[in-house]
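In practice, a research group might receive sequence data for several interacting partners and want a quick structural hypothesis before committing to experiments. The following worked case mirrors that situation: the sequences arrive first, and a predicted assembly follows.
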Amino acid sequence: MTAPVLPLLPPASRRHRPTRPVGSRSRRARYGLVVLAFLLPSALPLLAFTLGPMIAALWVSLNQWNLLSPMTFVGLGNYAKLLTDPATGDVFLHTVYYVLGYLPIVYIGGLALALALNTALKGRALLRGIYFLPVVTSWIVVALVWRWLLSPSSGVVNTVLGFFGISGPGWWTDPSWAMPSIILASAWKDLGFVMIILLAGLQAIPTDMYDASKMDGAGWWRRLFSITLPLLSPSTFFVLVISLINGFQVFDQVYAMTGGGPNGASEVVVEQIYDMTFRYGRAGEASALSWMLFVVILAVTVIQVRGQRRWVTYD
Amino acid sequence: MTETVRLPALARTQMKSPRSREARLRLAGFVVLHVVIIAGACVMFFPFLWTIITSITPGATLTNAPALIPANPSLEPYLRLFSERPFVQVVGNSLLLAAITTCVQLVTSSTAAYAFSRLPFRGQGVVFAIYLATMMIPLQVLIVPLFVELKTFGLLNSYLGALLPTFASAFGIFLLRQAINQVPRDLDEAATIDGAGHFRIFFQVVLPNIRPALATLVVFSFMSSWNSFLWPLIVLRSPELQTLPIALAALQGQYISDWDVIMAGSVVSVIPMLALYLFAQKYVIQGVASSGIK
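A structural hypothesis for the assembly, expressed as tokens:
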């Protein structure tokens, strides 16, 4: 999960701001070349393979196109079509369902883990490693393993549930359990990532804060809510932003676990974009849907950035 | 006199019992914490254990689940994995692509990060904001135009086509810029007085001082390339070019019942990442913490 970060973060210290060189024109020109030399290696790929295609996608979204024959301009036709198609609402709804199910599990679980693994625990490094292991595993592997574990007839999970006299659900084969299955596998995979981010945040909290409040007789819960969580709010904010950005783009695990099925019960936005483009040859519509998704993600992120003043404290 | 001596003594005996109760409570909490966290680790690890067990139980299928302790463990699924299809090639492809992506990202991220941290220029803030905004763009938005672009250049079905879009990572640039911002400027100034230019400062002062952040970037770059699925799936169509995640996904469709072989492939795919994580483990938390993400 190499993830977006952004201007969401506190501005870096500007104490020793180096100054631009002043002086002769040739010296300034030489400085300009140095700046270019440092920037070009990253600017070229970003322009050619991110910003350029981004603009191009906007153009494609205004056309009807099956990737093979020439494009025909349809203006906002693709957007109009998508907005009136009930399937669009469904895929967005499924995506929101995923995000809302996944986020509380990874945040609360990740926080509990980070708190526990930040104490003097025996074998802490090994435990952190085990919890982090799913993070480095590819989505495809995670999806395959979980399909296997959640297999309705003979999967491990249903077998264990059977011992307790519970007859397990059909998991990914059942339309109403397909999304919970995907959420479960995703939470298992990302728990370690959230843990690492929060752990790094916990380690930045000065211990004397705790000593002072202990002297005042504050209990564990009190310290959690009045010291730890407020001081951890930048990390929490980061986790929320990243999880929402990535959550709206959920694809790999859906593709590998259910393929959007059964009966489209777990069809998410990106799965739809993929199918439209490469299965049905409706690239124009797919681009329009991509832009709609981008606008939604941007809006959600901007709202969070705007709202952070209310609850995120930077020291 | 006697009063003042006795009072602290009394106070001490009064405190003794709550203190030992607190100690007992703390011990209980300590034990409970260990039990919970270790049980959690077992649950987290179980899918891996199950994967390993399945991968050494030939003939394991959905209806014929493997036993927890396999009766006849065998490496046969691994042999089948590597003999029946070009799996060595697939692992090689993945390693090659991940290594190149990681190296290129180290170069592009560290140079850009240096520019944003140490080389002020007009419009720097705007350029940096645009760089960061590219992180917000979902890859899926870019798929169709990228596909067309690479088709125009004739780069479909080639390693270069799979690699090019991964060359610059805004995440990496951001991570390293935060790290470089924390390298004391006095070091640059001392080097400048010694007559060093920006290139020498970059190589001899800045880079050696941001090793934890570089190690963190190596882990995240390698991981994202090793596990990337959607873009390689679209670009690399020939079987001999395929990467691990694609080959694994294909295995599932092709051999729907051969779970032992699929799980062997899964184990193979996790090993390099595990090795990399163990190698860079101590740097990762430090790197995240020092990046200011905290």
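Before designing any experiment, note the following. Chain A touches chain B through 109 residues (CB under 8 Å). The domain at 76-311 of chain A is CATH 1.10.3720.10 (MetI-like fold).
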